[in-house]
Amino acid sequence: MAIARAFNALTRGLSRLLRDRAGNTLAMIAAGLVPLLAMVGGGIDMGRSYLSQTRLQQACDAGVLAARKRLGSDVIATGIIPDAVVETGNRFFNINYRDGAYWTKNRSFEMTLEEDYSISGAASVDVPTTLMTLFGYDEVAIEVSCGAKLNFSNTDIMFVLDSTGSMAMTNPGDSAPRIDILKTVVKDFHTQLEGSKSPGTRVRYGFLPYSTNVNVGYLLKSDWVVDDWNYHGREAMDTGRTETYNTSRTDYTYISGSAGYITSYNAASCPTDTYTWTQTAGGTNPDRGSFGTAVANGTYYWCDVSADGSLITVNGIAYNNYTYRWVVTPTGTATRQIYNWKYKSMPFDVSFVKGATGDDTLKSGSIDVRMYGYPSPSPENITAWFRGCIEERDTYEIDDYDNVDLSKALDLDIDLVPTPGDAKTQWRPMLHEISFEPEIWWDGTGDFKSPATTSNDYLMAGWAGLSSCPAEARKLDEMDGGEVDAYLSTLTPDGSTYHDIGMIWGGRLLSPTGLFSSENADLSGKPTSRHMIFLTDGETAPYDLSYGTYGIEPLDKRRWDPKKPALGLPLTDVVERRFAVACKEVKKRNITVWVIGFGVSLDDFMTECAGPGHYFEARDAAELQDVFSKIAAQMGDLRISK
Known about the structure:
Elements: H1 2-19, H2 25-70, H3 75-78, H4 83-96, E1 105-113, E2 119-128, E3 139-151, E4 155-162, H5 178-196, E5 203-210, E6 228-261, E7 265-267, E8 276-284, E9 290-305, E10 312-349, E11 365-372, E12 380-391, E13 428-431, E14 452-454, E15 474-477, H6 481-488, H7 499-510, H8 517-520, E16 529-536, E17 547-548, E18 551-552, H9 553-556, H10 571-587, E19 591-598, H11 604-610, E20 615-618, H12 621-635, E21 637-640
Parallel strand pairs: 4-5, 4-16, 16-19, 19-20
Antiparallel strand pairs: 1-2, 2-3, 3-21, 5-15, 6-10, 7-10, 8-9, 9-10, 10-14, 11-12, 12-13, 17-18
């Protein structure tokens, strides 16, 4: 370096002088004073130069460390260091090496973003000399380099994401709904972590969307699920009375257009009908008959499911301006028995969701139940589907949240593996279409009563949009960018906000000592850092009419009885207190919980769950990017790389 070169030149000149024996003594003494003074001055200059170099290196390190910590995931899109990050790095550099320190000049500091998202820096300064100018050295140029990198050890990250209906809203200042902002930020977060991890490091990602329920059924072994379960249905009952009714015959006449069966095909789910029917003319005849003309368009679908539930075959009839005329002709009268609906809890065999062996995971499937239309000897069928959501195992109405009995609250025991054949320990498949709520009308009015016998048609939660089942959960696994993008595309906003079930199942999927202990164990003795990122955009908002993880709560009363609730708590408070219990259980597994409120202020039970420094509130997309950047920095090991 420059300091060493100057010192070497000085010592070489002095050595030549000492070896030169020509001339008189006085001249030699006089000549010797010059290099002696130069050595003294050079020592001073060298000391200042070394001090400047040391401080410059410290300032360079401080600058890149601060910049890397501040680095947000928006760098993924731009490929350059954002201005805010540059400003942070410069500020820390300037604090540690002020302009003009040690009489230096021409201070400079520049940072560069590397491919692995580390930040490298280069700093330089000129140190003016004193007596060294006698040897032609007016200044000494000091240059240093530095770098900061965010490293990750083996890490498991479970995203527990609120996917309720409010995620379709757009925050003030944003141009996209919350759910779309969330998808972008999570993808950027994943890209940044993947780019920062060291070779041989395992970073796994899992996802659990939650709303009224969680879709974890397809992750469960068949042995972990009951063979039969009771659901709130209805069946036709003979009243012992009869009635006389008019009979008729209907004749149809084709006019124009076309209709025909579509070619059957296989699909992951049954498509939604596009069939429309429009009456274009009509009237009545003197014989009390009727007539009319109608036009049909679109496709009417129906689906067949294979015995093992793995294959859905789609069938249908396609209509293209199919126009026809009908005539209804009275044919007389007849007598029939009068039936009523009896609404009650009914047992059903649900083994159709199970695989061939106890270790096989659950599969999709459905059963037909005669509960549609008007009560009669043979009501029409409703197809009740298993879509992956579940009802929780046994629990009790807690009256002391400081002393919860996990031998009774099996739903809050996140590590307990079910015992085959023991229904208390097993989960139950959710059948959305068997969810009748006597005596609740379709407008939500009325009072719960079961059993109930009546001719009335009461609300069914599945068809009323009150049994939301979010996107399928995904277990921890190493994922590339394409896989993350494909998964996030399945998230759609729907349902109500039940935070407790999100915390419970987020913990189950992440725990190293529970259901998935063999998959979640540490690798080769290397410890794994485990993190849950719990994001919500709303306050707790359960709805007593919903059919969710604990059934239809006013009817099933598994954890809450609306007429005589334990501790006098409303359902909202019950959900929040159970969330707090579940959070404590999660953290007992040495799992770090991060809680984010997106577009909403966090309640105390949320901040207490996360603890100081582990909860954040983000009002818009930019703040959410910043929050995930802070979490990444705290999850990783920020260190000097050179």
